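Sequence in, structure out. Go.
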Amino acid sequence: MKIVKEGYVFIISTFVVSLILFFSNAGIITNILGFLFLLVSLFCLYFFRDPNIEITKGDGLILSPCNGTVLEVSENEMEKVVRVFLSVLDVHLQRSPIAGKVVSVDHKPGKFLKAMDPQAHIVNEQNIITIENENGRYIVKQIAGILARRCVSWVKPGDILEAGDKIGVIKFSSQVDIHMPKNVDIKVKFGDKTVSGVTIFATLSRLGECQHG
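Output:
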C-alpha cells in the first residue's frame, strides 16, 4: 500500500516531534505527549493511505470518484447528482469517474461548515473538476469540511484521463459530489458505502446519447 505524497509532511513532522519528546527525558508528561504525537503520526499514515485496487471496467460505467457514504441522490431538469460524505476513516484519494478530457479545474473559496451540513456543497471551499467525453460532461467537486481545510487537485485542463485515474485528495473529513448528465441510471442510494474507482455510481441508459451540460 502506498501513501499519498501530501501526507508525508504530517506523518514525518508528528513522528519527529514524538521522538524529540521521548528522548528529552523531561518527565512523564513529556512522555505522554510523545506517545500522543506518535498516535497522531500513525493516524496520518493510515489516513493518507493509497490502497491497491482493481479499477472496475466496462462500457458506459460512471465510477465512484471517492470512498465514503452516499449522503444524497438527487436530480433536476439538467442533471443528476450524488453527494458522498467522507469520514476521517475513509480513503481520501479521489479518482476520475470516467475516461475523458479535463475541461477545467476551478477553485471556489468559501466556508468550512461540517461536511454533512445541507449547505456545505453550496458555501464551502471547493475544487470543481470538469471532465468531458463523447457521452457528456461530468463534474467532480472536492468540498472542504470543518476539518478539511485544503482540497488538492492533481489534474489540469487538457489532461486525458482513464476511468479510475487519480485526480486529487482532500485533507481530512469532507464531501465529494459528482454531477452527471440527465440520461444516466443511478445505481447507488442513500447510505451506500462506496469505493473510489470500484463502485458503479451510474450507467449510461443509452450509450452515446447523453447531452452535454
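Check: The first helix runs from residue 8 to 23. Confidence is low (pLDDT under 50) at residues 207-213.
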